[in-house]
Amino acid sequence: MPIYIYEVQDENGEGEVFEVLQRMGEPALTHHPETGAPVRQIITAPNLVLRHSSRADAQIMSDANLKRTGFTRYEKSGDGSTYVRTGGDKGPETFKKPT
Description:
Protein name: FmdB family transcriptional regulator
Strand order of the largest sheet: 2-1-3
Number of strands: 6
Strand content: 25-35%
Order of helices and strands: EEEHHEEE
Distance between the termini: 32 Å
Radius of gyration: 18 Å
Structural class: alpha+beta
Largest sheet: 3 strands, antiparallel
Low-confidence stretches: none
Number of helices: 2
Helix content: 10-25%
């Protein structure tokens, strides 16, 4: 299960930051589980497997494993606003980042 990060909303729009272990299918929290204060979910970058990762990590992100598990990998191309499918076989071949 992934860990989600939430921030308590105070008068300034900022507050305590806390983490919650939740299933992906569960809805995002709207209130702090202990205090009941309003919260917002913070979107963070996922933990990515890069070229300098271990051999096991690289195998998990291999084209064959991505295709077998139904995932797709995209990488930036050209000016950085176009993404090209480099792993898996689901989704479009390319797409442009919305402006």
